[in-house]
Amino acid sequence: MKIVVGLSGGVDSAVAAYLLKQSGHDVVGMFMQNWHDTTGTLHGDCLWEDDLDIARMVAKKLDIPFEFVDLSGEYRKRVVDYMFAEYEKGRTPNPDVLCNREIKFDSFMKVARELGADRVATGHYCRLEVMKAGDREVFRLLAGIDPNKDQSYFLCQLSQEQLSKALFPIGHLLKPEVRRIAAEQNLPNADRKDSQGICFVGKVDLPVFLQQKLAAKTGDTVEIMPSFYEKHADKSSATDPETLAAPFKYTPEDGKKIGTHNGAHFFTTGQRKGINIGGRAEPLFVIGADVETNTLYVGEGQNHPGLFRKALFINRAEIHWLREDFRLSENETATYDVRIRYRQPLQKATLLMSSIGLYILFKNAQRGITPGQFAAWYRNNELIGSGTIQN
């Protein structure tokens, strides 16, 4: 089988390529360049040229062909422009999820197929299984064996068609085992640190990065006291999904102005850094941001009631099922394990399909439910579906 491996310069994709070659496959390493601009990137980050050099060295060490493809135009249009648009609306997108759906397993996969590849492999820590359903195959996306590295969440928007052309060779391994294999094979990146930050962009000063298109503008920072919620006890004790999923709507009159900021669209729910107001017994956290009035709402303490909600809502158009056979009908409910961000432990929840979208009702109130992020639901370690959080 001819397999194109997305060599990123990291140890995970390098070991994936090694394992596939050891299994007798015709392996080609391909590096994708997705970003040129260094605006907002933090000093000390590895530039893409370093990644390219390492990827080329890995291919040479493994004695496999090496290809290069520039997908920066597609990446800017389909991932970065989406990021800017979401932040401008006061939502917090997840570019890594979009990068996988739009670039790695779409644009990159198309180039690989043009090279004659049967499959595309990456160094993601997740597993893929195939089962028969009548006369067709169903691809099951399973969590990686390593609980500290499971990356199935980042693939929560992939389709059955994309999964049918994908391979994840290291999903059955723990990270230390991957490092050990790389060291035993003398791969040049055996001890290289894992990449961090935005997919293919790296660590960034987010406000500086976003100011490429979103202007900074001064607005009020308003503190909401816990007593505010005592006045809205009816919402706190509600049981209907619509009320539970609706975030509190604040006005400046609900609290006290305690400072200013440089743009509400630069902040996200649960954020601590960047508020720049000290002298408190406990740190301040963002509990809301109104981009229309450019008002930032904050609360003191990591257990501030404004940080917690028992439900969220996903518009019908934003719901994605990796397993169509599990799709819910209107008024149907089902129990799943759900996470609303990478590395969050799975949370017990009930999914309720309504005429307008999907409500996710958690057993325990969740901290920092963030519009624009993805909620993903699992059953027995299999990722069943996902959707963009509306509120």
Description:
The protein is α/β, with parallel strands linked by helices and 391 residues long. It has 3 domains: 2-209, HUPs (Rossmann fold, 3-Layer(aba) Sandwich), CATH 3.40.50.620; 213-306, SH3 type barrels (Roll); 308-388, Translation factors (Elongation Factor Tu (Ef-tu), domain 3), CATH 2.40.30. The protein contains 10 helices and 18 strands. The chain has helices spanning 11-22, 48-62, 72-88, 95-114, 160-164, 175-184, 206-210, 227-230, 233-236, 241-245, and strands spanning 2-6, 26-33, 66-70, 119-121, 126-133, 136-143, 166-167, 219-223, 256-261, 284-290, 295-300, 308-315, 319-321, 333-339, 347-353, 357-367, 374-379, 382-388. A hairpin with a 3-residue loop joins strand 15 and strand 16. Helix 1 (11-22) packs parallel to helix 2 (48-62), helix 1 crosses helix 6 (175-184) and helix 3 runs antiparallel to helix 4. The radius of gyration is 22 Å and the shape is globular.
